[in-house]
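Hey,
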Amino acid sequence: MVKKTVANPVYSDDYISMNQDEFSMDVEGVGWYYVSGGNFISLVPYPDADKTTIELYLNGSAYGAILHQRKILPLHGSCFRYEGKGIMICGEAGAGKSSLTASFCLNGADFLTDDVTPVLFREGKPYIWALSDRMKLWGDTLKQLGREAEGLHEILPGIGKYFYPVKGTDGENFTLDLVYVLQKGECLAPEFTELTGSQKLIALRGEIYRHEYLQGMPENEIGYFLDIVNISSAARVFQVRRPQEAGVREITAAMMSWASENGVWSQA
């Protein structure tokens, strides 16, 4: 197959190249990815590339490019529905987004998305577009949750992180009501702070998935700003500082307890 390239890139580096409607990515040892128009993907796999690794980039960076080309706001967070609320957990890699989502789902929540969440808007109100049917979990997290890694596919060979299948919701939309932004910190127990005003806007903007793509897609900036303003108006946003070594069940219990004590589940 021929490697399709980006005509007149607005932004490029050693890894990616893009303009408003085209995107290409060269992943060493994996393949050449090309995305255009929000509806077309071309893949040239490299020799000996692992199928699971190829899919990892398809469902991550290439998926993000598709959403950006469609001007659908993608946030770097995992989502579930609990106590009637659409909840998103955001944070940097390793903060615990997928782990906490899995823990809540094993405690009665409905799974919606993992790692990348498309947000749709109707009459200015944000909705989670639930398209996922699996999540990425470390072997240690599976063990903490009483699940076995045996029989699961590793997302990359030898790293000990696995795809864990979960029943999805077939592309349904759910209101986005609460956002938790996780941070690891030097604290003895999880600490919760509700963000307001510009704090919410700054925190939400920082969670745009593959934010660096916007360097080559400047048309998205204004629309995304308005989207973030709408999320800020409709959803409550909390910053959660969690201890470095706290287990997933401990953090889940703290979040449930704090939310109940502070009336989070009962408030709009």
